[in-house]
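Re: the 214-residue chain
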Amino acid sequence: MSDNGSSKTNVYDKIFNLILTHKIPLGAPIFENELSVELGSSRSPIREALKKMEAQGIVNHYPGRGTFVAPITRHDVEEIIDLRVVLELFCLKTSIHRIPDETLDRIKTQLSALEDGSPFDEYSKTNIDLHETIIAFGGNKRAENFYQMLSMQILLVNRSTPCARQYFVRSRDQHLEIVEALKARDLEKSEDLLRSHLEYIKQNTMESFEYVNL
C-alpha cells in the first residue's frame, strides 16, 4: 500500500476508534476542522474517511447541516443481526468444505484458552475470528465485502450493548461446538448450531439494548 493509502486508512481507523469508544457519541456532530487538529491530518483524508463511513452506515451527512454519527435504534440492531444470520448461513454451505483443519484447530486452541475471567475484548476478538473465517472461506467475494461493511456496524452495536460475563462464557462454548461440527464436515449440525448461536446473540443483544436505553 502506498504511503498515501496507508495515511487514509490510518485516518479512517482513528476516526472509527473515536466513535467506537464513544469519544464522539452516537448522534453527535462531527467537525472536520476539529478532527484535523486532533489527528494532525489535512481535511482531505478526513473527508474521504467520512464518505466511506457514510456508505457503511456509520455516519449520516445532511446537506446544510453537516455530518453526524448515526444513532443506533432497536430496528437497526435487528436488521444488522438478521443480515448477519443470512450471510453466515449462506457462506457456511461452501466454507464447511474449504476451511482447513489447521485453521479450525487454531481457533479451537484460542477458544479453549479463554478462561472465565478473561477480558471482554479478548473474548470478543477470539469469537469474531470463527465468524469471519466462515465468511472468508465462503467463496463469495461480494458476500465477504458486504460482511466486512456490516462488521463495522456489528462492532458499534456490541460496544453499545454491554453483555454479562456469562454471555461470553456460553458463547465460547457454543463456538467450540460449532468448530467440532465443522471439523466433522457435518453441514446439518453446523447449520443448526450456528443458527442457534446467532439467535442467542440476537436475544442477548436485544435485551442489553433495551436495558441501556431504558
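Residues 74-212 form a domain with the Four Helix Bundle (Hemerythrin (Met), subunit A) fold (CATH 1.20.120.530).
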